[in-house]
Amino acid sequence: MDKSIVIGLDIGTTSVKAVAFNVSGIVLAEHEVAYPLLTPFPSWAEQDPLEIEKAAINVIRWLTECSNIQSDRIYAIGLSSAMHSLICMNSKGEPLSPSITWADGRAAAEAAKLKEREPSIYEATGTPIHPMSPLVKLMWMKENKYEPYLQADSFVSIKEFLLYRWFGVKYVDYSIASATGLFDVHTLTWSEKALQIAGITEEKLFQPVPPTTVLEGLDQEIANQMGITMNLPFVIGASDGPLANLGIGAIDPGEVAITIGTSGAIRQLISTPKIDEQQQTFCYRFTDQLSLVGGPTNNGGIVLQWLKDTFGSNEDFDSFIALAAKVQPGAEELLFLPYLNGERAPMWNSKVRGNIFGLSLRHKKEHIVRAGLEGVIYSIYHVGQTLERLAGPPKKILASGGFARSPLWLQILADMFNQEVQVPVSHQSSSWGAAWLALYGIGVTQDLSMIKEHIPMKGQYMPIKENHEIYMEMFALYKELSETINRIR
User: Fold this and answer.
1) In 3-state terms, what secondary structure has residue 157?
2) Which Enzyme Commission number(s) are on file for it (predicted)?
3) Contacts of residue 199, Cβ cutoff 8 Å, sequence gap at least 6
4) Residue 314 gets which letter from DSSP?
5) Is the overall model pTM greater than 0.90, yes or no?
6) CA–CA separation, 135 vs 264, rounded Å?
7) 388-409: b or e for each residue (b if 16 or more CB lie within 10 Å)?
């Protein structure tokens, strides 16, 4: 039987997804399994790596059993995963610690110390000094004599953990390595200075490899559980950031990807690493030739979830968002600073908190909902200003993630940036990026940029000049308030 299917396996913060595509980028089947985020103490954010492994196996098995995706029709499986996770693992591939996620803030004090004592480490790694960084997490472990840290044979991300258990390999792709804060983006090697700060040796980390690295010889038991053959190739892939850019076609200079799911980010692929002197953005390696520059916000879809939990009664999300459409842009001068979960770019302050500014007797629930949706885009626009300083103004904006299901949210984005926003049919851009990279890794396609010919597009949103003018007036106040709050906290 001829092969015609490629799968993207995306290991996210709240769930793992498996998406089966044909080579034209059309989704044939997809399945998602969620898992909880555990918060045993304030500011901690952990997950059970074995539960994530079970979810990853089950989503592949669902595709092969319940959607008529036959194993012999699959070219390969490409992997995507969230950044900044950290697991202490023993030599048998058993987890000694939970998976500590990007959202974990326990190392805030260590981040502050490092920023004061060794700010130049950012120049080598491109990873902002923040509690999300595995480097800073390792500092916390060392200083607190964390027992799993003392016993660990390896320190790995969730993707490395799975691939070691499935294939027995000690590989990490460039982008996941970059996101640790331990990797020199200029030399593509582990940074000796960062290792010293973390109190570990290079032997405790896996070998950095290109994202096109092909893995074969899947463990027989895992293959049986997934419903696939042992010889089906897996391609190591990358983190969800560069893969979202690839999967949406934001590859060439000036092409900007904006993704908003649980959190959010604005990113651009560039040919040479660019380190921000003001340390407001990240710079992660993707391939030997490409780097990713941009910035993440902690507060994307979680803002909408909080609004709905707080004000939504029994409304579904569509009905709840529809309330905001009753209100004019600017929400009658109501501003929502969406720092419900601290903030990363551009302020990198895990202690900063949100604020509703300008509240009056005139404002009702629909105004607060609108202000919340706008606040998320203000935060993206705020990061976008820094990105523009490094990489120039955007020539094209492409949007993906859960927020791309909302026409209102997309119109707010187009109005605020005063540019056309293009949207693909599938919001699973990281999965499609992982799948296309898999095709490239096994030689089915010869050029990463050819993906642009295989991305079904849904449409575009054109900016409304009058709305843009309102948003720019409001953004000036937003920026002033955010800087004030950042100083206070």
Assistant:
1) coil
2) 2.7.1.12
3) 138, 139, 142
4) T
5) yes
6) 22
7) eebbeebeebbbbbbbbebeeb
Q: What is the DSSP string of 347-363?
A: T-BTT---EEES--TT-
Helix (H, G, I), strand (E, B) or coil at 253: coil
Is the Cβ–Cβ distance between 188 and 136 less than 8 Å? no
| Burial category of 142 from C-beta neighbours within 10 Å (exposed 0-12, middle 13-18, buried 19 and up) | middle
Could you tell me which of 371, 382, 376 has the C-alpha nearest to residue 345?
Answer: 382
- Beta strand residue intervals within 405-463, DSSP E: 421-424, 457-461
> Encoding tokens for residue 439?
């095709």
Question: Cα separation of 422 and 401, whole Å?
Answer: 13
Amino acid residing at 127? T
| Residues belonging to the chain | 489
> How far is 302 from 437, CA to CA, in rounded Å?
29
Question: Cα angle at 256 between 251 and 258, to 5 degrees?
Answer: 120
Q: Is 22 exposed, middle or buried (0-12, 13-18, 19+ CB in 10 A)?
A: middle
Q: Which amino acid, residue 316?
A: D
Domain map (residue ranges) of the chain: 5-241
Q: What are phi and psi of 127, to 5 degrees?
A: -100, 120
pLDDT confidence of residue 312: 84
Distance between CA atoms of 188 and 287, rounded to whole angstroms? 10
Using DSSP's 3-state secondary structure scheme, residue 101 falls into coil
Closest CA to 37 of 100, 107, 131, 82: 100
Whole-angstrom distance, CA of residue 227 vs CA of residue 241: 29
Alpha-carbon gap, residue 475 to 462, rounded angstroms: 20
Token readout for 228 is: 């696939």
Amino acid code (one letter) for 275 = I
pLDDT per 10-residue tile (average), the chain, 489 residues? 90 94 94 95 96 98 89 95 97 98 94 95 96 97 98 98 98 98 98 98 98 98 96 97 95 94 92 92 96 94 94 87 96 97 91 95 97 98 94 93 93 98 91 97 95 93 98 98 89
- In angstroms, rounded to a whole number, what is the distance separating the alpha carbons of residues 421 and 257? 10
Helix (H, G, I), strand (E, B) or coil at 78: strand
Dihedral angle over CA of 381, 423, 308, 356, nearest 10: 10
The pLDDT of residue 67 is: 84
Instruction: Give dist(CA 101, CA 49) in Å, integer.
Output: 11
